[in-house]
Design a protein that fits this description.
Elements (H helix, E strand, L loop, with lengths): L4 E3 L4 E3 L1 E3 L2 E8 L22 E3 L31 E7 L6 E7 L17 H5 L4 E5 L4 H4 L14 H16 L5 E11 L1 H11 L9 E5 L8 H14 L16 H16 L20 H6 L8 E6 L16 H12 L5 H4 L6 H24 L5 E6 L18 H4 L15 H20 L18 E5 L4 E4 L3 H11 L1
Parallel strand pairs: 2-5, 7-8, 7-9, 9-10, 10-11, 11-12, 12-13
Antiparallel strand pairs: 1-2, 3-4, 4-6, 6-8, 13-14
InterPro entries: AB_hydrolase_fold, CarbesteraseB, Carboxylesterase_B_AS, Carboxylesterase_B_CS, Type-B_Carboxylest/Lipase
EC number: 3.1.1.-
Family: Belongs to the type-B carboxylesterase/lipase family.
Length: 490
């Protein structure tokens, strides 16, 4: 028996049906960025004749190996520069066009894919009656090298341009899958959330989505000159002089480029935390820093749901990890955030690994998210959350670490079995509460539900929904710390 068929602008796609959900995987939303298209802006995909099989995920962007075996559920997908594919989950039966949720994965702009098992959209389609879209985009040196200053038609922010190309594809084609192109909510975590901050500032993204959910990541970019310096360092690793012919990049294999990027990263960071591949303020595609753009109204009319996890930094600093030097970690944080000295703020934290985890949580994740929320208040409603969910006794999830909320938001707790966690009714209830809030936001632009009051965020009360065993609203949580950090960062 054949699966569901959708008729797109480029040809027919045959997916599969699992229960009450139709699924299409591995849909090309752009031409393969290979050959002459490498390091350039994405181009439209080619049309095809007949019916294209859409039952399997497409290749993922080149990225470092999944050493823990949890990223792709223990499997090893094909890695390729030909990676610009998206996936769709939709209710098999629906009476009217449905809202669309468009997921942008995280992974420090160097890892991840829309095909990761924890991003399975079945519950969104079945329970939420929404269309769920996940995407791949170019990563690392292929997606975030500031190459436009070197000419030859090379681009910068290639990964962000991929995201826009996928959004344009959705606007043009999602009606064929039952979706409403006027009700698209972008949501993402970590680098995916930072991507959304950039999209809110990018003129080319205007009109492509109606709402945004940002999980554990606010505006994070590189200045143009710093991005150019990193790109020049990578060119040098490949033997291309600063004033040389950057078009020679076409002559190297993907493996050579990956190896050169690894060598360059080690030289420039010394192995400390840092992100060399990320959005860059290129003056064209991304004209100004996203936090500034949002403050000036670039996201006017876009409702925003934003928040962080209580213990973000404990994913990166843990007791069993090699002891990191506090001053070196602080210097890396200053470079990542583009701030001046943070020593005065650091005096309020211990120099232990716990202190390093806490300062990363507070400054890099929490304070920047609060700031972005404040910048949007004059232009659209904002809701703030904090995820406090933990699994007592678990070696990692006994804290609400970075990325811990994803399986709750997707209602995909089964993925936690890969981390040897046992799922209990309290965890399942928390997942349903968070999942339903995300669904409500997609349907009505407001995360409140019949079961859960969620006041809007404002400067007077700063209402924040705390997702935990006893989910509740807190007003200006940790207010003294917030005031101190804001004052010192000002």
């Amino acid at each position: 028996m054949g699966g569901p068929i959708a008729v797109t602008s480029y040809g027919k796609l045959q997916g599969i049906q699992e229960g009450d959900v139709n699924i299409w995987r591995g849909i090309p939303f752009a031409a393969p960025p290979v050959g002459e298209l490498r390091f350039r802006a994405p181009q439209p995909p080619e049309a095809w004749d007949g019916i294209r099989d859409a039952s399997e995920f497409g290749p993922v962007s080149h990225q470092p190996a999944d050493t823990r075996g949890t990223r792709f559920g223990g499997k090893t997908p094909l890695h390729s520069e030909d990676c610009l594919y998206l996936n769709i989950w939709a209710p098999a039966v629906h009476d009217e066009p449905l809202p669309v949720m468009f997921w942008i994965h995280g992974g420090t702009f160097v890892t991840g894919a829309g095909s990761q098992p924890q991003f399975d959209g079945t519950s969104f389609a079945e329970r939420g009656k929404v269309i769920l879209v996940t995407i791949n985009y170019r990563l690392g040196p292929f997606g975030f090298m500031n190459l436009s200053p070197f000419g030859h038609g090379l681009a910068s922010n290639q990964g962000l341009l991929d995201q826009i190309a996928a959004l344009e594809w959705v606007k043009l084609n999602i009606a064929a899958f039952g979706g409403d192109p006027q009700r698209v909510t972008v949501f993402g975590e970590s680098a995916g959330s930072m991507s959304i901050a950039a999209l809110l500032a990018m003129p080319a993204a205007k009109g492509l989505f109606a709402g945004a959910i940002m999980q554990s990541g606010a505006a994070q970019t590189l200045p143009n000159e710093q991005g150019k310096y990193i790109a020049a360092a990578l060119l040098a690793e490949l033997g291309i002089a600063p004033d040389g012919d950057a078009s020679l990049l076409q002559t190297f294999s993907s493996e050579q480029i990956i190896d050169a990027a690894a060598r360059m990263t080690k030289k420039l960071t010394g192995g400390s935390i840092g992100m060399l591949f990320q959005p860059v303020i290129d003056g064209d595609i991304l004209p100004v820093e996203p936090a500034q753009a949002v403050a000036e109204g670039s996201a006017h009319g876009i409702p925003l749901l934003i928040g962080t996890n209580r213990d973000e930094g404990n994913l990166f600093f843990r007791e069993e990890s090699p002891e990191a030097d506090f001053d070196e970690s602080l210097k890396a944080l200053e470079q990542m955030m583009g701030t001046g000295s943070l020593k005065e703020i650091a005096n309020h934290y211990s120099s232990t690994w716990e202190g390093q985890a806490e300062i990363l949580t507070d400054l890099y994740f929490w304070a920047t998210s609060v700031s972005l929320a404040e910048n949007q208040l004059n232009y659209a409603p904002v809701w703030m959350y904090r995820f406090d969910g933990t699994i007592p006794g678990h070696p990692l999830l006994n804290k609400a670490v970075h990325s811990a909320e994803i399986v709750y938001a997707f209602n995909n707790l089964s993925h936690l079995t890969h981390l040897r966690a046992e799922i209990n009714p309290t965890m399942q209830k928390l997942a349903e509460v968070m999942h339903d809030a995300w669904i409500a936001f997609a349907h009505q632009g407001n995360p409140a539900t019949a079961e859960r009051v969620w006041p809007k965020y404002n400067l007077e009360e700063r209402a924040t929904l705390i997702f935990d065993e006893d989910t509740h609203v807190a007003y200006d949580p940790e207010s003294e710390k917030r005031k101190r950090i804001v004052t010192m960062l000002a």
